[in-house]
Amino acid sequence: MSDTNNVIVLGDNSAESKTVPVVQEVDLTPKEIVKRLDTYIIGQHNAKKAVAVALRNRTRRLKLDEDIREEVTPKNILMIGPTGVGKTEIARRLAKLCNAPFLKVEATKYTEIGYVGRDVESMVRDLMAIGFNKVKREMEDELREASKEKVEEMLLDLLLPGSGEKKENKGNILGNIFGMQVPKTEEPKTDPEAEAAKAAENKSTREKFRTMLRDGKLEEREVEVTVTSQPKGNVGILAGGNMDDLESAMQNIQDMMNGNRKKQRTVTVSQAREILTEQVLETMVDADKAADIAKKQVENSGIIFIDEIDKIAVHGEAGRGPGVSREGVQRDILPIVEGCHVNTKWGVVDTKHILFIAAGAFSVSKPSDLIPELQGRFPLRVELDSLHKEEFRRILTEPKNALLKQYSALLSTEGVTLDFKDEAIDRISTLAEEVNAKSENIGARRLHTIMEKVLDEISFEADEHKGEVFSIDSAYVDSRLSDIAKNEDLSRYIL
């Protein structure tokens, strides 16, 4: 571990073993983290502040001496607030900010031990799968340039069968395995001069095709390649999982034994290059080394976002009965959050330093309805504010992925330009606030509903209005929503 402790180096210094960051953007202060989150999420300063401190503490922990580093555990966070106010987005953007393995799960999809369903440990296995694929992609990106030469030779072999260098015949495979003496087959005698002339001609032709290939003149020519179908599920049967995983794994094994995984495809040279590149990279990447690096990343910087945790809280006597108990699911989640060892197909993962962020509306139950032990594992609690007119207005215009920018970009592909007036933005924001107050509060998602209703006619007929500019003002918004707004029952149903 270096003095900054922001990287872990595994193995030697070969191309496959690079220094892989455990936590990206280690120099970001909590204020800078909040500033970056502000570019995507409006408001919710307290929640941003909590996750920024949690991320910074991870960086601080990696700089500690080894004897105390293991004792410092993440301060897990419980977010409380209505749907659509940014709980999931804060966690997702935080993970992207530090390039950490991230998994979002719904607490309601798990069942307690003894019942058929997703076991709680599967969230760790899923996170490890995400981490492995992430590291593997990073390794492939580093090796992509080195693979181009091999891919080019393979493409030339497909375009000119028999023009490549002949490989030495190693004899019968079974004979080599069992030590049997396999008689060498005598090759027919040929004229050396004729063979040399033919080889020179093949080489000349191959070099001509190489030049044409590099110039892009053969991109649309068709060739036949052998492809390997990807497994449909997780083959790691012993790592756990439900019956669907087991059935998928058994099907994959059966396909492999029947030789059904390889097949011939006729594709263009351009498509063949992509297929062959993936095949070559698959052989160049050291999967074991990728698994080791991914395991370190998951254990030190992994983030699991547990949504809808309020749905497994026991309110009074609710949820008690002969079926799956919500309290039982809480008890099963507890050891994962506390820190335990989970078997995965890539090795045993320690969950002690994984950051858990739980979230829920808690409209019916309260955080105190969770079992005390689980409450104690989420010491940081932040309440997210409901969104109002001013926040809606900012959501429509300010973020990088603002809704108005999205709709304008979509319709610009049809040659249609949208011009949103300030009065229209104010009207849409006001309507969103009013509808959330009268019916269920679904936060910023209400803006999607209203925007679709306002623009549905333009979107439907966009292909007939190429080159036109549509000016959206408050009168146009009211004209599109007037019938719905007048009828309160219809408004609740539609909006």
Describe this structure in words.
The chain has 495 residues and is an alpha/beta fold. Helix content is 49%, strand content 12%. The protein contains 18 helices and 13 strands. It has helices at 30-38, 45-62, 66-69, 87-97, 122-159, 173-178, 192-214, 243-257, 269-284, 287-301, 326-338, 372-376, 389-397, 403-412, 422-438, 445-460, 474-486, 488-494, and strands at residues 7-8, 20-21, 77-80, 102-106, 222-228, 262-268, 303-307, 341-344, 347-350, 355-360, 380-383, 417-420, 469-472. The protein has a five-stranded parallel beta sheet, sandwiched between helices. A two-stranded antiparallel sheet has the order 1-2. A two-stranded antiparallel ribbon has the order 5-6. It is globular. Residues 1-19, 167-171, 232-241 and 318-323 have low confidence and may be disordered.
Task: Explain the layout of strands and helices.
Blueprint: E1 7-8, E2 20-21, H1 30-38, H2 45-62, H3 66-69, E3 77-80, H4 87-97, E4 102-106, H5 122-159, H6 173-178, H7 192-214, E5 222-228, H8 243-257, E6 262-268, H9 269-284, H10 287-301, E7 303-307, H11 326-338, E8 341-344, E9 347-350, E10 355-360, H12 372-376, E11 380-383, H13 389-397, H14 403-412, E12 417-420, H15 422-438, H16 445-460, E13 469-472, H17 474-486, H18 488-494
Parallel strand pairs: 3-10, 3-11, 4-7, 7-10, 12-13
Antiparallel strand pairs: 1-2, 5-6, 8-9
Helix pairs in contact: 1-2, 2-4, 5-9, 5-10, 13-15, 15-16, 15-17, 16-17
